[in-house]
Design goal:
single chain; 489 residues; mainly alpha; Growth Hormone, Chain: A; 0% strand
Length: 489
Amino acid sequence: MPELSHRHRMLVLAICCMSLLIVSLDVTILNVALPSMQQELHASVAGMQWTIDAYTLVLASLLMLAGSTADRVGRRKVFTAGLVLFTLGSVLCSLAPDLDALIAFRMIQAVGGSMLNPVAMSIITNTFTDPRERARAIGVWGAVVGISMAAGPLVGGLLVDTVGWRSIFWINLPVGLAALLLTLRFVPESRAPRARRPDPVGQLLVIALLGSLTYAIIEAPTSGTPHTLAFGAIALAALLGLLRYEPRRDEPLIDLRFFRSAPFSGATVIAVSAFAALSGFLFLSTLYLQNVRGLDALHAGLWMLPMAIPCFVCAPLSGRLVGNRGPRLPLLIAGVAMTASGILFAAFEAETSNATLVLGYVLFGLGFGFVNAPITNTAVSGMPRAQAGVAAAVASTSRQIGGTLGVAVIGAALATGVTASTYRDTFVSAARPGWWIIAGCGLAVLVLGALTSGRRARSSADRTARLLGTPDTTEPAPASPRTQDTASA
């Protein structure tokens, strides 16, 4: 990619952030619309889980393929195709006649979405080559998630209450079309110096692993033990197949050598934990506010603002901290805040009091606002830029796996303890295991953030970078100890 002016780099960042905005808005708006969709489509709790997880499952399955394909055939080409498919999928979702059609159209959306975020992050990585400037760009990227969390519940609530739940998909159209036109005009094409070969066997194993695992978890409360164990066995076999097959390939779909870097491995598990907590948090909160408190979609969205605003404020601050001091401090703050929020709901039933409900939302928003930038920066820093798409896709895949498992596990825990006839009376107690799971995810962020951001962990990242690339393809080392975390984590 040719060297761009500062103004042009900022424009590329803005275009990439537009793609993140529509994907993130789609998640937050959908959560607010769940009760209305459930009522109109006569869906069960499992049906609502599938409207979310069908999307995240396909997304997680295809992200690494999209990243490697973009490195091979051109990042702008794949990014453009993703915008077209995502926008088309949004139109189809708005026209879905029943739950099955909606789930199918959500999967089309996800195929397009898989070509957006990891490819956009790869474009950003190759546009912002200075470690500090890149970390700050990633902070802006993270702030967009905060914007979507702040705007999504309000915009979604307003649309659901005034027009209907189908209108939540319309908002993707103007943003998607604008991003498409700007991409064709301003984003330069880039690709890896040497094309990577496709890995269809690895791709099929990933789909089998994620699909069977998610199905087993979601359907466990209603399908019975033999059915659940059968799909669990398929997931285990697919995992073992990946671990055996991928290291034997010269150019695998998943380069397992990435995980020799302690910071990279830690960031992967942190991403799963953080996004499992987020998806479970949104799922439980939306159902509680609308189905238990009886709020309409707009007022439920307003109640989510104490979570969304701290996330919006803290995301760019986290990016700046990562750029100046490394990922350790933001990860520790995130872990403490998310754990405290989960415990507040699980042990003290925070939702039963307005004051503790707001406090729990603020704490979670604070924690999630700090966690995103260090995950992304750690994933792409210290890796060869020729594999930026794959490295970014691994981080994005981890997020989607977390989101999928969060809804599946926490939704399954809720479904076992709540009944339709006593929904309002049993919801708080039935949701308690889910809140403990969220607290456990926050604790995982805290512990792994401390263990994988120290000097020994950074040394493993340096060794991995030397193993994966040559000096002219690997990110440059930082000039001062203060920025060492950023470049080598």
